[in-house]
Amino acid sequence: MATADFEARQLLKAYRKGLISDDLFEEQMQELGKDSSSEGYMYNGTCHTTEKEMVMALLDEFRCGENFAAEYLNRWVEVSDQECVKGGLRVVQQRESYHASILEARLSELGGDPQCTVPSERRDKELPYFADANKTDLEKLQSIAAQLSDPAAALKPLTDAIAQIQDDQHSKELLSSLVDDEMSSVKWLLNTCETLSK
Hints:
This protein is mostly helical. 77% of the residues lie in helices and 3% in strands.
């Protein structure tokens, strides 16, 4: 933003001295406006003015998703029809629960409070689905695999936001480590789905 302000002042000086025409001045100012509006920190389609603001939004949304995953995975474990699935699900569920806890702790350290909640329509759809004993583990794994067929693409909003973090190295490394955990969970889910599909 400071660069855009400096450039605007320089343009104004040139314009006042008669070094550039009215049309060129207007054109250059419009270009500056476009450039300055793109400055900021992007996460999940939202532009944040400061790194801290983006990090706090990321921590809160990630925490919210992990907390919900821990909840529906716990219900799935209770009705799982395959011992091999039940064992792996317990590990993934504990990871998600831990992630939600550590993300909330970091959010609190930065002065934030949990704000994000899972939309009721999503809760009303997914909780009963994963708690349904009439749905097989394979069906549930296939529904997840369909959403996570490309793990890197699924995690791209997170990894893109993490790549922007320069100042808050604590949060950056915490988030990077959790993304590695997420990749392990996704790998297990996809491999187990493939094994049961044979």
